[in-house]
Structures are given as C-alpha cells and as structure tokens.
Design a protein that fits this description.
The complex is a heterodimer. By secondary structure, chain A is mostly beta strands. Chain A has no helices and 11 strands. Chain A is globular, with a radius of gyration of 14 Å. In chain A, 35% of the residues are buried. Chain B is mostly beta strands. In chain B, β4 and β5 form a beta hairpin. In chain B, strands 2, 4, 5, 6, 9, 10 and 11 form a 7-stranded mixed sheet that branches. A 4-stranded antiparallel sheet of chain B has the order 1-3-8-7, with no helix packed on it. In chain B, 36% of the residues are buried. The chains are: A mainly beta, B mainly beta. The interface between A and B is medium-sized, with 22 and 26 residues.
Amino acid sequence: GQNIDQPTEMTATEGAIVQINCTYQTSGFNGLFWYQQHAGEAPTFLSYNVLDGLEEKGRFSSFLSRSKGYSYLLLKELQMKDSASYLCAVRLAYSGAGSYQLTFGKGTKLSVIP
Amino acid sequence: DAGITQSPRYKITETGRQVTLMCHQTWSHSYMFWYRQDLGHGLRLIYYSAAADITDKGEVPDGYVVSRSKTENFPLTLESATRSQTSVYFCASTLLPSGGPYEQYFGPGTRLTVT
C-alpha cells in the first residue's frame, strides 16, 4: 500500500520559521504537492515538486529528495493567518487517467501563536 | 466566474436514504474527483472521472455511485446512506494535460451527517 507520513500537529511563534516534514513510501512517484487548508474550508494548492531540490514561492518553500522519499514545506516570517492544516500529497506513476490521482497524507495542523 | 461549486453545503439525512451531492465546474476541466475527509484519515479518493462518461473507482468507492453525462457536472450518490458515510465531501477538478503540475482545484465541500 501507499504510506505518507506527516506530524499531526505543530506550534510555532509569529515571525518565526517552521518546517513541516513529509515522508512517503509509495509504489510509484510522479510529483509531490503541498496544500493549505484552513478550518472549515477547501484545500488550496501551495507548491509542487517533481525533481530533487528546492522550490521557492514568496514566504513558502518546498524541498524534495526522491532518493530519500522525503519532502518538507518551509514557512518563513510566520503570520497568524498561516494557522491551518498543511497536506502533503503524492501523485503515483499510474498510466492513463489514473495518472492524475493524488494520495494524501493525514495533514499537519499548524498553530501560530503570538 | 464561480469556478467549482458544490451543493448542498450541509445535509442531514437518515440511514437508508438515498442522497446525491452535486458538483459543478465552469472551467471545462476534463478531470474531476470526489474525496471524503475524516478526522484521522485525511482526504481519501472515492471516484474520479477523466472525461464525460469515463469514471473509475478510487480508494474507498463502496456505497457510492457516480455519473458524468456532461463535462461540467459530476454528481455523487449514496445509494443507501450509512452512519459511516458521515463526512465532509470535496469535489475537485484539474485541467487537461498542457504542461505544468496539474494541481487539483477543490470545491467548498459538503458536510453530510447521516443519523
């Protein structure tokens, strides 16, 4: 089966930096996604990695190591509005229509405190 | 531009009843997905569709039926609702392959309670 692990909860201080880790063991790999989900709302896309390395988007960065089955999401200059769940998702290397399926981890609930 | 919408947003139904959750997108995205989200499980794929009249099972399809007669609509039906189907249901869509990550866009969700 597919296994995607993330910490359940994290707490960080406003203005600080936080790193949310994701490890995966899957039968294939065709990209890793990070989504943000505020309580009671829909997930929204944050970042995508398919090659090893760091992708930076403003205050958010995402890193991937395919050989280690590991990714992290780095949030800098934390703001109160960053309090949300962060979902790691892997796209498996199926063929055809199934290639666009995502398998999600259970999410990490981040609380930003003053 | 409404994007992707779901209705109803909240629904309470009784065990054994049939209930249909609607999903509509205005982008002409070819791929659409139904997920359920439960505490302790995260998002799990129920069914997906690559195009009109093409659907396939995901991880947790039992007790659900889908159809897709038009590209923009992807209804999910619970044929005989059970308490274990109490959940938040999200519909999502993604664009035809044209380069890029093909990220999924999610609707606002339907909170379903089965009593």
